[in-house]
UniProtKB/TrEMBL annotation:
This is S41 family peptidase. Residues 91-156 form the PDZ domain. One of its GO terms (cellular component) is outer membrane-bounded periplasmic space. It comes from Castellaniella ginsengisoli. NCBIfam families: prc. CDD domains: cpPDZ_CPP-like, Peptidase_S41_CPP. Residues 479-497 have a biased composition (Basic and acidic residues).
């Protein structure tokens, strides 16, 4: 009797799962009109039934179903994920530009959360968290083996509450500790200002719902001071976001009707072409703000680095293909895939990679990234930001044009010793200075050879000193470095060695 009941339950599960697959339209077999794999579904139902009846502790049905759905994504590319209720809400918060927590964008590396980018003017950025930092402890609890979702939950919290993070930074001999107070994060995706000599500077930190509208307003505001003679568009450490935002931003600098990006996938709806559009009239922004005429003709430079991904690469690739702008900085992340969000119910969904995208000339930047016209280090003394690119991630999609990726000999030069973290768009921004040089017809320098030699000499000294001192002492290790938001000193934050879509933001 029990066996018959279990079989009945199993076949009910097979029917239920098959119905879900068909109704969502995500089963490859269903897409091709082939029958569902009933034998495999029967096997799944048998395992499900065994867990329900025999596991040492009872497991809720919803927990089993959620874990089973998550398991479907483990062999897919790293950008395809199941969005449970919390993750789905976070995705909506990110694209709308508001969320609570620290203000860092994170991915995973070696089973631990890794900082893709700290968001400007947030607790994490002010505390000194850097791109490429590996979060090894949260409030004293190790993150090894912790799911990304669990790490996000632990880092989120009520504004005003503190959190302690232990960070492993590439090149650092010991973990760095940070004491940070959570805030309600409201991100501004577009910032800008006029520089000397009539050069406009605009930085986009993320592509959100309002990015195109905010960009048009910013460009119009800059025009009130004077008509710019040159423009620097800063996309460094911008991890991307909404595809429509990338089309809108590109449309501000390209003539309407020009191809911005094309996508190619397995199903017809994934094969599309997207063109630059007018940003006035029916596509205008709130308040009737008009796009200034100079934006499509002014000399232009785009700044990128290893943290520039996805939508950032679409914009940089399009402007480079049309020779509308010169690209300066380091090779970008290399995320050339498109994710579609499919809603399962009002609170959950899946983010599924459905296509690759191609620049107007037909280039795929998957794994290879956008190579700059002028390679320029993050600082005058070498590169600061070290992180895995798309090609280094497990299960990444291959690039048909160049599956092995692109070698980066310039990535070997990193600043050693104590350095000051520069401000994007600030007076100490080396790459921005080179962008200005390009616009004014002066030579563009990769780095300052004198400072590079000094950095290498300092690194060699540190290494030889460490090698000599290590076996000579049995003393306990020195206390871990600690930084807090209240550190005063000389007002300059320094770091030992500083060597980046949908992505979660705690």
């Amino acid at each position: 009797m029990g066996t018959r009941k279990n079989r009945s339950l199993n076949w009910m599960l097979v029917g239920f799962l098959g119905g879900v697959l068909v109704s969502l339209g995500i089963s490859a077999a269903a897409q091709r009109g082939e029958p569902l794999p009933l034998k495999a579904l029967q096997q799944f139902a048998n395992v499900y039934g065994a867990i329900k009846s025999s596991y040492v502790e009872p497991v809720p049905d919803q927990a089993l179903i959620d874990d089973a759905i998550k398991g479907l994504f483990t062999g897919l590319d790293p950008h395809s994920v199941y969005l449970d209720e919390e993750a789905y809400k976070q995705m909506q918060d990110i694209t709308r530009g508001g969320f609570g927590g620290l203000g860092i964008e994170i991915g995973t590396q070696d089973g631990m959360p890794k900082v893709i980018a700290p968001i400007e003017d947030t607790p994490a950025a002010r505390a000194g968290i850097l791109t490429g930092d590996l979060i090894i402890q949260i409030n004293g609890e190790t993150t090894k083996g912790m799911s990304l979702n669990d790490a996000v939950k632990k880092m989120r919290g009520e504004p005003g509450t503190p959190i302690d993070l232990s960070i492993q930074r590439a090149g650092s001999l010991k973990p760095l500790k940070f004491h940070i107070v959570r805030e309600m994060i409201k991100t501004r995706s577009v910032r800008g200002k006029m520089l000397d000599h009539g050069i406009a500077y605009v930085r986009i930190s993320q592509f959100q719902d309002r990015t195109t509208s905010d960009l048009v307003k910013m460009l119009a505001d800059l025009s009130k001071q004077q008509t710019p003679k040159g423009l620097v568009l800063d996309l460094r450490n911008d991890p991307g976001g909404l595809l429509d935002g990338a089309i809108g931003v590109s449309s501000a600098f390209l003539e309407p009707g020009k191809l911005v990006v094309s996508t190619k996938g397995r199903i017809p709806s994934s094969n599309e072409e997207f063109y630059a559009r007018s940003l006035n009239g029916s596509h205008g922004v709130e308040g009737g703000v008009q796009l200034p005429a100079w934006t499509r003709t002014v000399p232009m430079v785009v700044l990128v680095n290893v943290g520039s991904a996805s939508a950032s690469e679409i914009v940089a690739g399009a402007l480079q293909d049309y020779k509308r702008a010169r690209i300066i900085g380091n090779r970008t992340f290399g995320k050339g895939s498109v994710q579609s969000v499919l809603q399962l119910d009002k609170d959950t969904g899946i983010k599924l990679t459905t296509a690759r995208y191609y620049t107007p000339s037909g280039r795929s930047i998957q794994n290879t990234g956008v190579s700059p016209d002028h390679v320029v280090d993050d600082s005058a003394a070498g590169n600061l930001f070290r992180m895995q690119r798309e090609v280094d991630l497990q299960h990444h999609l291959e690039t048909q044009a160049n599956p092995s990726g692109t070698d980066d000999p310039e990535d070997d030069d990193f600043v050693q010793g104590e350095i000051k973290m520069f401000e994007f768009g600030g007076a100490d921004d080396w790459q921005l200075r080179q962008a200005i040089n390009a616009l004014q017809g002066r030579p563009v320098l990769k780095s300052d050879p004198v400072l590079v030699r000094q950095a290498r000499a300092a690194a060699a000294t540190d290494k030889s000193g460490m090698a000599a001192a290590k076996p000579a002492s049995d003393a306990p290790p020195a206390p871990e470095e600690k930084k807090t938001l209240n550190d005063a000193g000389d007002g300059v934050e320094r770091y030992r060695v500083t060597p980046d879509g949908l992505i979660r933001i705690p």
